[in-house]
Structures are given as C-alpha cells and as structure tokens.
Specification:
The strands form 2 sheets. Strands 1, 2, 3, 4, 5, 6 and 11 form a 7-stranded mixed beta sheet that branches. The protein is globular. The two termini are about 15 Å apart. The chain folds into 2 domains: about 160 residues, Ribosomal Protein S5, domain 2 (2-Layer Sandwich); about 140 residues, Alpha-Beta Plaits. The protein contains 10 helices and 11 strands. The chain is α+β, with helices and mostly antiparallel strands and about 300 residues long. The longest helix is centred in the middle third of the chain and has 20 residues. The structure holds L-homoserine. The site of L-homoserine (HSE) has 13 residues, from β1, β2 and α5. L-homoserine (HSE) binds next to β1, β2 and α5.
C-alpha cells in the first residue's frame, strides 16, 4: 500500500468584484487528507471523515468525485482510501469543498506519478466543485492548488497566480448561522449586470489586485467592493449584518468582502493590526447576539505533502 498525507488550505473567492475570478489561499484553517492506494483493489473508493461532517458517497464527496474521474481517465484499478480531517467548516464560504477536491487531485497525481501540471490539477479539482456548487468554478481550487492569489481570465479560462505583499494579513469572520449552500447562493444571481455596475467593478477589481501587489491597505479599502453579487446575496440572507460590516470596514480603513458565497467575511489589513480588527468585528456581531468564529491568518501556500 502506498499513501500520502497532504495539507489543503481554505481559500476565499471573489474578494468583492472578482466573482468567479479572484481567489486567495489562506494559511488557516486547513484540512489534512490521507490518500492511500491498495494495488488491484477493484476500483473501490472508500471515504472516511473526522471533524465537520461531509458526504461519504464518492459521487457526492468533492474529493471522491475527483478520484472517480481520475480513476476513469487513467484506467486506475486500485482501491483508493481517502481519510479527511475536515477542519474547514463546510458551507462557510471558505472553500471547504475545493480543499478536499484539490487534496485528492494532488495526492493521486503524486502517488501515480501522472505528471499533471498545476493547471491540469486545477481542472480535475474543479470537477469536485460541480458536486457542491453545480458548476466547475475555479476561483477556490486555483488558489488551493497554486497558493497565494490567483486570477482566472479568458476563454478557456487561464490561471494567473501571484504572491501578495507579505505585510498583509487576513481576518476571517465566520458568523455562527445556518450553513449556506453555494448552489443555492448561485441560483439567486441574475445572468447579467448593467454596464455601469460592470465598469465600476472593473475599477474595484483593479484596485484590489494593485493593493495586494503593493501592500496598500488604502487601495484594498477602496477596491474590495462589488456591485454585482454581494448585495443580492446579502438581501437573500447569505450574509449577515452586511451594511454594518461595510460601515465598520470603512471606519477601520480596511478592505472587507463577503468570502465566496458567504456567510464568512474576509478582511485584509496590515498584520500588526489584525488582533484589534478581529475584536472590532467580534463585538459588532456579539452586540447583535450573533456569535462568530474568527481566524487571524495569512495568505497561504497551495496544497502540499506533509509528513
Ligand atoms: N465564485 C464562487 C461564488 C465562489 O461566489 O459562487 C464560491 O465559493
């Protein structure tokens, strides 16, 4: 039997205007995934999970689905066991499904020496997103594989990765409310946005990228905004205290956005200010009787093998 243990990061998608384009890998939280293969085990996939519960059926588990696809494409005939330590809360907007899918794609590539490029791993991992979101969006799996920040652009989509300035850090605010489904959070979105929203979003997205590269929180404050998706989701209950969160971010002079499909928010600021920023957000939520979990973290690496 051969096996490999990998660490797969949480990720935050959209960051305001970058719907299905922008994604950022986080150092914390992360999943640990063990993948082992027993030769000629009869094409069986067994999944077990500790931590947050997720589906165990390979057709409904984002990692299991990736394994099924890779098994078929590469005529793998073995027994594949996937053990997931699920630390990234599912349905939080933190790329939980992408982490599992990316971990399995990465581990199978290494265990079978398939020599897939990182772009090919992203494509495989994105198939797992179909299981949870109904569409193979790349903006969580790309940072989960590449690490750092990734931009998705073009048809067919290409991935443009870069490392944000190291002085920046991240606060994730995860309100303790019912689990959101990415699938549901996409169903309510319109298929078009008007021209004035589109050009304003191009401005916001450009400022966000510039702010990350230059390490300028003032640009992130002005850039991490959206006129296409966030407010609609907030209106449908996929984000809590949306206006209050925006007002607090304005007061603190930092960038804040709904993380992916929510309900988590991501704030980006200088690393030495993260503790007090986290406290301000905790108070905002607790004053309205909404508990929240806070992660004070940094931009992280893509999935990698651990001992
Ligand atoms: N771009 C995706 C969405 C990310 O907002 O639906 C989901 O995590």
């Amino acid at each position: 039997m051969e096996s490999m243990r990998v660490k797969a990061p949480a990720s935050s998608a959209n960051l305001g205007a970058g719907f299905d384009c922008f994604g950022l890998a986080l150092e914390d939280p992360y999943d640990i995934v063990d993948v082992s293969i027993t030769p000629k085990g009869g094409k069986v996939i067994e999944i077990s999970v500790e931590g947050y519960p997720i589906p165990l059926d390979p057709e409904r588990n984002t990692g299991g689905y990736v394994a099924l696809k890779m098994m078929k494409d590469f005529s793998l005939e073995d027994n594949i066991r996937i053990r997931i330590q699920k630390n990234i809360p599912p349905g939080s907007g933190l790329g939980s499904s992408a982490a599992t899918a990316s971990a399995v794609a990465y581990a199978l590539n290494r265990l079978y020496d398939l020599k897939l490029s990182r772009d090919e791993l992203v494509r495989y991992a994105s198939l797992g997103e179909v299981v949870s979101a109904g569409t193979p969006h790349l903006d969580n799996v790309a940072p989960a594989i590449y690490g750092g920040f990734t931009i998705i652009a073009g048809t067919p989509p290409r991935i443009y990765p870069f490392q944000p300035d190291d002085r920046l850090g991240v606060v994730v605010i995860l309100p303790r409310i019912g689990k959101a489904s990415t699938y549901e959070a996409r169903k309510i979105l319109p298929s078009t946005i008007d021209l004035s929203s589109a050009y304003r979003n191009v401005g916001y997205g450009s400022l966000t990228v510039l702010g990350l590269i230059l390490g300028r929180v003032d640009l992130l404050r002005d850039g991490m905004r959206d006129e296409g998706v966030e407010r609609i989701r907030a209106h449908h209950g996929f984000a809590q205290l949306y206006d209050e969160v925006r007002m607090l971010a304005e007061k603190l002079g930092i960038g804040v956005a709904l993380s992916g499909a929510g309900p988590a928010y991501i704030a980006i600021a200088y690393r030495d200010e993260l503790g007090s920023i986290a406290e301000s957000f905790r108070r905002l939520f607790e004053d309205r009787d909404i508990g929240c979990r806070i992660y004070i973290t940094r931009m992280g690496r893509g999935v990698y093998e651990v001992g």
